[in-house]
Amino acid sequence: MLKIAVYGKGGIGKSTITSNLSAAFSFLGKKVIQIGCDPKADSTINLLGGQPLLPVMNYMREYERYPASIAEVSKIGYGGVLCIETGGPTPGLGCAGRGIIATFNLLEELALFKTFEPEVVLYDVLGDVVCGGFAAPIREGYASKVLIVTSGEKMSLYAANNINRAVNNFADRGYAKVRGIILNRRNIDHETEKVQDFAVKNGLEIIGDIPRSRDINHFEDEGKTVIEGNTDLPISHKFLDLTRMLLADEQQRGRL
Amino acid sequence: MLKIAVYGKGGIGKSTITSNLSAAFSFLGKKVIQIGCDPKADSTINLLGGQPLLPVMNYMREYERYPASIAEVSKIGYGGVLCIETGGPTPGLGCAGRGIIATFNLLEELALFKTFEPEVVLYDVLGDVVCGGFAAPIREGYASKVLIVTSGEKMSLYAANNINRAVNNFADRGYAKVRGIILNRRNIDHETEKVQDFAVKNGLEIIGDIPRSRDINHFEDEGKTVIEGNTDLPISHKFLDLTRMLLADEQQRGRL
Ligand SMILES: Nc1ncnc2c1ncn2[C@@H]1O[C@H](COP(=O)(O)OP(=O)(O)O)[C@@H](O)[C@H]1O
Ligand SMILES: Nc1ncnc2c1ncn2[C@@H]1O[C@H](COP(=O)(O)OP(=O)(O)O)[C@@H](O)[C@H]1O
Ligand code: SF4
Ligand SMILES: [Mg+2]
Ligand SMILES: [Mg+2]
After folding, report:
1. CA A166 to CA A154: how far, in whole Å?
2. What superfamily does domain A2-252 belong to in CATH?
3. Does A153 reach chain B within 8 Å, measured CB to CB?
4. What would the pLDDT profile of B146-198 be if each residue is shown by its tens digit?
């Protein structure tokens, strides 16, 4: 099972990248689960035709109990991708990452992975602070690889550095490792050099280079990923290449 | 004592706004303390000639105890402003806001406010998640007013909404109230309308409108606020006007 956590500063493009990766994996015939781990709860919206699904925390606030089945807090979206949103607690009250912890407990209780048998699981995780629930996907065997989405902007690289340090602080526990950086361009001055500098300083590889793309926004307005929109576009090829590379990566490690 | 907490999305300009407000209050003859509550720990850097000061959490990690005096974790900067940085825990390990809680405990133990007798206290607080230590400045009588710094960008307004909701969730406890919004421009399309829309929807006032300013960046490169750089600039007048308005506001409430 390929289990990847996508981290990055809020607004940097995690959900865009993650939902397009999910769609691309599915397009290649893989069985996928995408779990949104951002209180914004809109990670999977473009796999669901623009219709947000009820987050786990919202369900629990409304019904004051855990859902009895995964169906109550999930939806099958584009290409058969199973979509889940953790949501978050009421602002200001309680740990912001609590929704992730509650959701992970629920998924274990309902034995989701055993029942659905995914080949790929993608976690889309807020990376402004890597603590509490936001650190959970790295720990406890949930993800084996972390991808850091960043632009060349100072604030985005600061968050990327924080995420990398957080993952490294768990290095001796067999938790997830940072597989690489996805440069999601904002078209600022010397963006390539700035991100390459950061990558080199931290011994990381830039495994994806996503241009600023009108196609992304166009299909987003239709509640779609670019994969659902048109797999022949150059931007769609970027995501398909990235998924193939991640699958090959996984197979190679399997042989070790 | 005028006690203000400045919140906003990471990178939106909180420290720029807060350090210029501190400098402006000091220029008007007020005694000021600025407390950086962002793990980035660079809130006060432009009041200190570009030299970052040792954060409280770093001190505690190094010496494994609380500082014995405030002097060990503070510095007098431009205009006599007392500068403090909370810092944060090691990434991934422990609540990201822990530095704020530790610092607040320290300040009480050392009776800082009694000794220094500030007329203005400014807290510069990360607003991407309002939980744990990041919610502390709102609670427990630390700040009486919250200013939300935002641009017209979707992600920034999302954070602003979250901050506003968090403050409102404490409405019945006599905690801090949101005084207003500071629009710190990013020059995106329809920025004024987007922020006005948000303000109207949430019953908030836009009390400051800060243009994108080369002067800010120019003096930042010299480790200065624009107030220290040149109080005759239009951008400096913006900050001086805002401080006068906040002081008048405070006086008016005092009469009630
Ligand atoms: N490469 C890109 N080109 C154009 N727009 C993008 C790109 N990446 C992200 N965006 C846009 O930026 C906004 C924020 O992206 P999102 O994926 O929601 O960020 P996050 O999940 O990190 O908060 C979205 O509206 C999205 O369409
Ligand atoms: N109005 C502005 N004009 C020009 N640059 C600005 C303005 N506001 C902020 N900046 C720049 O944006 C960067 C981030 O601002 P900062 O105050 O550090 O953000 P925050 O404290 O919210 O993380 C700084 O380099 C600063 O110079
Ligand atoms: S652990 Fe992180 S998310 Fe939880 S309360 Fe602390 S700062 Fe907030
Ligand atoms: Mg997202
Ligand atoms: Mg700051």
Report:
1. 18
2. P-loop containing nucleotide triphosphate hydrolases (3.40.50.300)
3. yes
4. 999 999 999 999 999 999 999 999 888 889 999 999 999 999 999 999 999 99
